Amino acid sequence: MSILAHKNTKLLVQGITGNEGLFHSQQMFQYKTNIVAGVSPGKGGEWVLDGKIPVFDSVRSAVEMTGADASVIFVPARYCADAIYEAVDADIPLVVCITEGVPVQDMMRVKRFLAHKKTRIIGPNCPGILTPGETKIGIIPGNITFPGNVGVISRSGTLTYEVLYALKQADRGVSTCIGIGGDPIKGVGFVELLEMFEADAQTDQIVMIGEIGGNEEEAAAEYISRYVTKPVVAFIAGVTAPPGKRMGHAGAIIEGKEGTAQEKIKTLEASGIRVAQHPEQIPSLLA
Amino acid sequence: MKLQEYQSKQIFARYGIPIPKGRIAGTSSEVKLIAEELGGRVVVKSQVLVGGRGKAGGIRLAKTPEEAQEFATAILGMEIKGLPVRKVLVDEAVSITKEFYIGIVNDRVHQMPVLIASGAGGMDIEEVAQKNPEKIIRIHIDPLLGLCDFQMRNAAIGIDLPRGLWKSFIEVIKGLWKAYVDCDATLAEINPLVINSENHLVALDAKVIIDDNSLFRHSDLGDLRDMDSDEPAEIEARKFGVTFIKMNGNIGCMVNGAGLAMATMDILNLFGGEAANFLDIGGGATSEKVAASLKIILSDHKVKSIFINIFGGITRCDEVAKGILLASNDLKIKIPMVVRLIGTNQAEGQQILQNANFTSADTLAQAAQLAVSLAKGKKS
C-alpha cells in the first residue's frame, strides 16, 4: 500500500510534447510509471517516447481511449488553469500540477471550481508524487530513496530531495513522498495527507517539511494532536528569513507577524511533534 | 509588485472611482505650475513604496503654489526609510467630513478574495484590526460569482454609511473589484475613502499590489515596477531568472530551490555563521546562470566564504560545476568556496572540480560548518 499513487495508476501527461513534459515523461517512463497517454492540443495522433505513448488532442479523448486515472501537468503557467479545468471536466480523480508561476487568482478560481468535484489536485509549483519502487508522478529523482515505511509530505522541492537522501543514508525507506507545492493557494494540503497516511497500512511514521508563510503547519499541528497516532517529525525552513520578503516560493513570506518559522516550530512542539534543527537530523528523530 | 499611489489612482480612475484632481511631478517648478492650475490649495505627496510617508514629513498640505513649490523642494530631496523620493503627486486639497477604509485582498486561509471595510479610515488597518477588531467587517467573495450587490450593501451598512451615499459607494466597490480582477491584484485598497464637503465620495489614497506571477498577461503593468525598492543585485539577478535576496551575514550562498536555499541559510545560522544572501538558481540552471550568480554574490564585498549547495534533480551537477569553473577563472576568485554537489550527474560534476581548489563535503552539516569556519578566517 501507499497513498494516492501506486504501480497500477494509469498516468496521462498534459503538455507531453513540450521540453519539460517530454524530458520528465522519459524519466517517469524509466522509473516504470505506467504512462498511458499524453495530451497536446493540435498534436493528436502523434506518438512519443520511441512510439510507445500516444498523444491526444484532448484530455477527454485520452481518458476514453486509455482509462487514465491520474494526470500530471507540465503546461506553461498561462495555460495551467485551463489544463486543470480540462482534467477535472474529464473526471480524473488525481491531478498533479508541476508548473511554477500560476497566477494566484487563477488558483482561487480553480479551488472554487473544485469544491463540488471529485478531483484531487496536488500543486501547483510542486515536485509531485513518488511511491518508491512503484510509480513516480512528477520530477522527484527516483534514485534517492527506496520503498519503506516513512510517509513524507513537503511544501518544497529540492529540500524534499535532501530529506529523502538523508533518510536513505540512514537506511530509511519511504512509503509515499508528496510535494504539495510552494504556492499560497494550492490543492491538497498537509491535513488531508496526514489523514491518508494515518489510514495507510504501509506508513508507520510521517515526516512533514514546512516553511514560512501561511498557517498550514499550525493547522497540521492541531490535526496531529487530535487524530494522528503515528509519530510525526517536522522540519520548518526559514528560521533566518526576513519579514516581508518572498523567499523564492510565492507562498514563503512572513506577512506582518504571521507565518514565522519560530511560531510554527513552537506550535508543533507544543503539540508533541519533534522538530529537527536541520534536514539531516530528521532520521535520528524517527522512531 | 507594488504600485505607487499615483499609478494605483490612475488605474482606479479608469474603473470609475473618483479621485482628487492631480498630477505627478519630478521637479518643484512643475509642482508650482500644477498647484496654480488646481487653484492653490494642494497636497504634495512623496511617491515611495513604504508606509509612514506622512509621519516622515513626506506628505504636506500647501496653501499657495509658492508653498507647494517650497514643500516639493524639501520632499524631492528626501529619503524615506532609505528610499529616495524621485516624484511627488500634487493633488487638490479635499476637505474631509468622514473617512473610511475599503480594500480587497487575497485571503490565504480561506483561499478566496475578501472585501474589508471599516469606518476607521485613514489609520493603519492592521492596527485597527488588532485594537478594535469589531470596527472591521470582512466579506468573502466567491471568485467565480464575483461581488454581489447584497454584499456591497452589507459593507455600506457595516460602516454606517449614510443611505444617500449607498449608490455611489456601490459604484466605488464595483470599480475596485473590477480593477482587482483585471489587474490580477493581490491587494487593491483605498485608505482613506472620504466624504468631502460637497457630500461626495473621493479616494484620497490608493494602493495596488500586482501578483508577479500574472505579469505575462499584463505587459503594460510590468513597466511600472519601481527599481528603487529593490537592491541592484536583486534586479541584476532577476535578469538571469535567479532569485536573490540580500541578507546581513558574510557567507555567500548559491542553492537550487527556494526551500533548500532557506534551509541552507538556517543551517549556517545553527552553526554560528550568517548568510550574506538568499540565492535560488532555480531548476535546470545552465553554467552561464551559475557563473552570473557567483558574480552577483561577489558584488557584496562583505562575503568571506561561499557555500554552494546543489541537490541535482532537474539541475545537473556537471553543468553547475562548469559554471563554477567558468566564473572562478574569469573572476580570479580568492574567497574560499565550499562546494557540495549531490544528485543528477554528481560524479561528473565532482570530476570537473577535482583539480580545482575547492573544499567539498558530503553532508550538509559538514559543508555548513566548513563554510562557517572559513568565513571566520580559519584554514580548511
Explained architecture:
The complex is a heterodimer of chains A (287) and B (380). Chain A contains nine helices and 14 strands. A seven-stranded mixed β-sheet of chain A has the order 3-4-2-1-5-6-7, with helices on both faces. A seven-stranded mixed β-sheet of chain A has the order 9-8-11-10-12-13-14, with helices on both faces. Helix content of chain A is 32%, strand content 22%. The relative contact order of chain A is 0.12. With 287 residues, chain A is an alpha/beta fold. Chain B has 380 residues and is an alpha+beta fold. Chain B has three domains: 72 residues, Dna Ligase, domain 1; 127 residues, ATP-grasp fold, B domain (D-amino Acid Aminotransferase, Chain A, domain 1), CATH 3.30.470.20; 144 residues, Rossmann fold (3-Layer(aba) Sandwich). Helix content of chain B is 36%, strand content 25%. In chain B, strands 7, 8, 9, 10, 11 and 12 form a six-stranded antiparallel β-sheet that branches. Chain B has a four-stranded antiparallel β-sheet with strand order 1-6-2-3, with helices on one face. A four-stranded parallel β-sheet of chain B has the order 14-16-17-18, sandwiched between helices. In chain B, strand 4 and strand 5 form a beta hairpin. In chain B, helix 2 packs antiparallel against helix 3, helix 5 packs across helix 6 and helix 11 runs parallel beside helix 12. The longest helix of chain B has 17 residues. In chain B, 45% of the residues are buried. At the A-B interface, helix 4 and helix 5 of A face helix 9 and helix 13 of B.
Secondary structure elements and their pairing?
The complex is a heterodimer of chains A (287) and B (380).
Chain A: E1 11-14, H1 19-30, E2 35-39, E3 47-48, E4 53-56, H2 59-66, E5 70-73, H3 77-89, E6 94-97, H4 104-114, E7 120-122, E8 128-131, E9 135-138, E10 147-154, H5 158-169, E11 174-179, H6 190-199, E12 205-211, H7 216-227, E13 232-237, H8 261-270, E14 274-275, H9 282-285
Parallel strand pairs in A: 1-2, 1-5, 2-4, 5-6, 6-7, 10-11, 10-12, 12-13, 13-14
Antiparallel strand pairs in A: 3-4, 8-9, 8-11
Helix pairs in contact in A: 3-4, 6-7
Chain B: H1 5-14, E1 22-25, H2 28-37, E2 42-46, E3 59-62, H3 65-76, E4 79-80, E5 83-84, E6 88-92, E7 96-107, E8 112-118, H4 125-131, E9 136-140, H5 149-158, H6 166-182, E10 185-196, E11 201-203, E12 206-210, H7 219-222, H8 232-239, E13 243-246, E14 251-255, H9 258-270, E15 277-280, H10 287-298, E16 305-312, H11 317-331, E17 337-343, H12 346-353, E18 359-360, H13 364-375
Parallel strand pairs in B: 14-16, 16-17, 17-18
Antiparallel strand pairs in B: 1-6, 2-3, 2-6, 4-5, 7-8, 7-10, 8-9, 10-11, 10-12, 13-15
Helix pairs in contact in B: 2-3, 5-6, 10-11, 11-12
